[in-house]
Structure formats: structure tokens, C-alpha cells
Amino acid sequence: MEGTQYEAWWDVRAQKERTGLPPIMALLCKTVAAAFALAAFSQQAAASAGRAASPQQCFQEYAGAFSSAGQDKCGPVIALAKCAAAANDAATQSTVDQIVSNYECDLSAYPLKPVVSQVDSNLHMAVDDEKDVVFVRQGRAANSGTSVWDLKDRVEKLATGKMSSAEVVKQLKAVGDTVEQTLSLMEKSVKESAAELTADIKKQSSDLSGDVDKNLGAVRTQMAAVKTRLKDLLAKKIKELNDKRKASVAKMDTGIKSVQEVSGDCNYATHYKQGGKCVQLTDCNKGDEKFKYHGVGTNRQFPSYIWKKETKTTDRVCKYAAYRRFYSLSDHVYFHFVRWPAWQYPVYNEHALVAVCKQAGMKPWRDESAWGCDPGKYMCDTWGYNLGGHDLMYKLRCVSQGGQCYGHSGSKDLDYNGVGEDFRKLGFKANERDIQIITKQHHSSTHQESASWMKLYLDSSGRSMYQDGIHNSLPKISEKSVAICAYGPN
Fold first, then answer.
1. Above 70 in pLDDT, residue 209?
2. Residue closest to 483 by CA, chosen among 369, 290, 298, 348
3. Which of 24, 28, 355, 360 lies at a CB distance of 3.0 to 4.6 Å from 338, suitable for a disulfide?
4. Its pTM surpasses 0.70
5. What Rg value do the Cα atoms of the chain yield, rounded?
6. C-alpha 390: how far from its chain's center?
């Protein structure tokens, strides 16, 4: 180190004699030139000392070392691995991993050679595993010639006004001439150093190109072997995945077919098919579709319900209670007709009657006080009326021109024209027969499998006409069955 410093100092003295520059400026020019040369050396040494190098430099070093390594290939292989790690390139690292996997080498047995380089005017000595030693360059100032301190003194004299204007002009001119001359010499020195460096780089590039052409054959051979192994491995994995995919697709196809067999091409839980298209089923519970009842002195909303269930090709049918009440017990109890949902309750029992009336917002009439009647299920007689289920049948028979008109509580609100009109609003047509009317049997108690019922028909004018009997037995439920339900406004 000391010899190098003295050589540099005498070179500066010689430079001064040639250029007439103070030692500090000559040393600066020498340092600039040395920096260019040392930078080229550092770039060449980076790949062999663990410092960052390009992927191409890594493979060039590897090719040369591999061809001359003899039987032991671990040295070049480990050097290539360390160089690729410093390059920090994913594609290069993947290729190097394939090469390293072909050898079993001890990393610690092949340390890289130390490299001396200059970075930021400091001397670096780098050994394997990035264990660096830095020798920091110490600056020094010349005591003669033009220096930053001399310039500082001149500026301070100007600032304190110790010079006359003529002296100021003279000093400024001297400073300017010195700076201009120094910069010109520095520029010339830098250009010369750059030209020399460029020529040296071209020569080294030519030499490296020859080495690369000579040694890349070995690398290509190894890469071809790696590609062959990868191709075989990928072909095997692809075949395995294809077999699994085919099995999964076959299983999925079987599941889809089974679903199609059950549901067709529409979601029949919410749609039906009409004209080749899936149509949304009618929602019978939508509040804005509730029927507004206009009775005699009443104004009430009854909810809709599903009277007929949908199929794959038809929509469901919603129904409401009859348009008007046909019979009443003062302003305490009103009686209405309700179409029976045969799909939901295909067999009669008294619990089914309660459920049918409840869907329409009403309850069956039970001529019994709350002591023996459940007001949560029935419209109980808490006023002391005398009107059983069979009595209601006689009232309807009388209205429908069937005779046997006699007493019992209550009054008729419609004649046979009005009853026929309400039946038509419920969906029946003129000349339709076997309209079955059902209500709770007798006055009180529970008659689970027996009811009071009769049959009516509509004549050609759509009026309600008596058809046959008044029965107290089990009715046979059909889509023509109609329940009598009640509610109490007061």
C-alpha cells in the first residue's frame, strides 16, 4: 500500500512538471483516470468473488472453468450457483438449479478467490460469502499552488473588502484562468483515459467471445439433457392430470344428467316452462295482490293462497275467499265460501277444515261457547246463537231454490243470483254441476272424519241451484269442493 501511494505521489509531481498544475490538481486528474481503469477491473471480478454479475458473465465463467476442471466438476458448479444467486434473476436461477441437481458437491470445500476492487474511491477486498474488508482512502491537501483553501482565502478577502476594486478584478481573473486551465486539463485527461478504456474493453470482449464460442457447446449439451428430462416429466404429469380430469368430467356429467332427469332444463321449484321458456311462478303471498273484500257494511282484506299446485308446464293458481258474505249473525259473524285446495288436503278431516279456513284468513264456525271451543281454531259462539253446520246447509238449500226454508239464527245476505255470481268469481262456470259445499258437522264437539255437506250446480244463467241432499258423513274431496268459513268483525 505504501509503495502504491508513493508511486502515485511522484506521478503527480511529474504531472505538475508537464502541465504546470499544482500537485492537488494533478493528483485529481490521476485519480479520475485510475477510477475508470479500476471500474473495468471490478466489473470483471464481480462474478468470481460473489459480487453481482450478469447471467451471461456467470455462464461464461462457468463454461471456461467446466471445460478445464477435469474429473472434479464441483468447483465450476458451485461458482456458477454463487454467481447466479448474486445475479438475482429468476430464469437464470431455475436453469442453474437444474444443473446443480446433477452433482453432489460440498459448498464449503470450494471457496471463491478473493478480489480487490475500488468502489466510491475506497479499496475493497472481497472474499467468499461476502466477507469484505474496506480500506478507506484518506484525503490530503497540498500546501502550495491553487487549492480550495486558497480560493476560500481569496473569497473571504473579497467579502471583507480588504482589496481595492483593481485588486478584486485581478484576483478574479487569476482565479478564473486557473479554474479554466484546470478544467481543460482534466477534460483532456478524462477523454484520453476513456479512449484507452474503450480500446481495452473491445479487446477483452473479442477474447471473451472466442472463449464463449469454444465452451458453450458443453453448456448446450447439458441444457439439452435437462430439457429432455423436463419434457418427459411434464408429459407424464400431463397424462396423469388428463386421466384425473377425464374421470372428474365423467362423474360431473353423470351428476348433471341425473339432475336434468329430475328437474329438466328449468328450476321447477321457482319456475314452469311455457313456450320453451322458463317462467317465474306466481307468488300467492305477495301483499300487493291481496284481494280487497267489499261486503255489506264491511271492508276487509283476505290473503291469497295456493289453490292449485303448479306443474312443469303450468303456473300455480291463487285463490281468495268469495267476493261477498252470503250469511251473517248480526254484525258478530260473517260467512264466506272458500275453494278447497285438494292438492294440499286430499282427504277431509276437521283439522284440514281448520287449516283451509286459516289460509283464507278465517275459521270454521262452531256453535259452542269458549268453555268448550278453542277460539284459536274456531269462530266460537260467544253470543248464544242457535246455528249448527246442518242448519247452514238448510239455509243455502233454501237460497238455491231447494225449499225447506225455516227458522234458526241469522239472516241471508245473498239470493241465488248473488251466490251464483260469487261461485263464478271463484272459478266455476254456468251449467257446472257437483259443486260440493262443506262445513263442520252439527253444533259442537269435534267430528274428525265427518262433516255436513251438500251439492249445488249453476244453471245456464249462472245462478246457484240445489242439486242433492244434506249429508252428515265423510265427503269425498275434489277440486269442486268449497268450504264455509267465518270471521267476526265485532
1. no
2. 348
3. 360
4. no
5. 55
6. 66
Q: Name the residue type at position 172.
A: L
| Cβ(75)–Cβ(110) below 8 Å | yes
Average pLDDT score over residue span 67-84: 82
Which residues sit opposite 225 in a β-bridge? none
Give the H or E element holding residue 220. Answer: helix 165-263
What band does 60 get if pLDDT is binned at 50, 70 and 90?
confident
Say which residues have a Cβ less than 8 Å from residue 12's Cβ, sequence separation at least 6: 23, 26, 27, 30
Residue with cell 435437462: 226
Type of residue numbered 75: G
Cell of 10: 511522484
Q: Does 27 score more than 50 pLDDT?
A: no
Residue 390 has pLDDT above 80, yes or no: yes
Residue 315: strand, helix, or coil: coil
Report phi then psi at 91, rounded to 5: -65, -45
Please tell me the distance from the alpha carbon of residue 127 to that of residue 75, in angstroms, as a whole number: 16
Q: How far apart are CA 49 and CA 46, in angstroms?
A: 5
Residue 471 and residue 319: Cα distance in Å, rounded?
Answer: 26
Kind and range of the H or E run holding 280: strand 277-280
Among the listed residues 119, 151, 144, 145, the one whose alpha carbon sits nearest the alpha carbon of residue 132: 119
Give yes or no for a contact between 333 and 313, defined as CB atoms under 8 angstroms apart: no
**Arithmetic mean of pLDDT, 340-369:** 94
Between 24 and 126, name the one with better pLDDT.
Answer: 126
Rounded to whole angstroms, the Cα distance separating 261 from 246 reads 22
Cα separation, 480 vs 427, whole angstroms: 10
